[in-house]
Amino acid sequence: MDDLFSVAGKTALVTGGARGLGFTYAKALASRGAKVIICDLDEHAVAAAVAELTSYGEIKGYKANVAIEQEVIALVDKVSNELGQLDILINNAGVVQRVTTEDMTLQEWNRVMDVNLTGTFLCCKHFGVMMKRKGKGKIINVSSIAGRMGLDLRLAYCTSKAAIEHLTRTLAAEWGPDHVNINAIGPGYIKTAMNEDTRADPVRYQKMLNQLPWGRFGEPEELVGVLLFLASPASDYVTGQTIFVDGGLLTQ
Fold first, then answer.
1. Of 62, 157, 205, 237, which one is the catalytic site residue?
2. CA distance 224 to 23
């Protein structure tokens, strides 16, 4: 039973892992014995994160833009050559753009879609080949409560997260025969740098708190339980699902 939720000895990649929730995911996996690779756009942030995470376990870090296919392919080659396999993929890289629809430019729309959705697709596609070849693997995509409910000023973000949920379901059906599990985590209102501006506005913040049955924002560490479930043998017969960690927000 102790091994049911174990990730010890597994190799995991966390995209967008140099900061925010990605850093929390990487720390959780490394501290439980996984070999962790992080990638991010900012090489200085990657270096700083690797330096901090080294005390928790085995860590490697690379600069990569998951929205550019050649950079994803190059990352696959590095992982394959240096580690030989990938057991767990966490598609965490994401951006948000807060703007009214009438003011949103095509460039802003494309940026959100490229990182959130296309980046998830590219990493699933190219790292999934490694997993299919091995006949086993865990892919964890990061959706959001924004994939199920509309949020003001975030048309592109909400649309991208809804698409990630359907990508997860569709790919799970396609790769089920290859024993590759594809699931998603759907964070709710979690305290991160991405929503610092929102929490700094007392009126807006209180309105959001009023939506939550638990009456508070979640802490990043409160996502770790679901992460370990989906990354470990405990979820071997679970695929195509999105598990929300939202303090009951979607019950409202």
1. 157
2. 11
Rounded Cα distance between 181 and 137, Å, is 6
How far is it, in rounded angstroms, from Cα 170 to Cα 176? 10
CATH number of the domain residue 173 falls in: 3.40.50.720
The backbone torsions φ and ψ at residue 195, rounded to the nearest 5 degrees and listed phi first, read -115, 20
Residues 6 or more apart from 176 whose CB is under 8 A from it? 239
User: What's the pLDDT tens digit per position in 20-76?
Assistant: 999 999 999 999 999 999 999 999 999 999 999 999 999 999 999 999 999 999 999
Separation of alpha carbons 18 and 232, rounded Å: 22
Distance CA 230, CA 224 (A): 10
Q: For the chain, what is the domain count?
A: 1
Residue 62 annotated as catalytic: no
Q: Domain for residue 252, yes or no? A: no
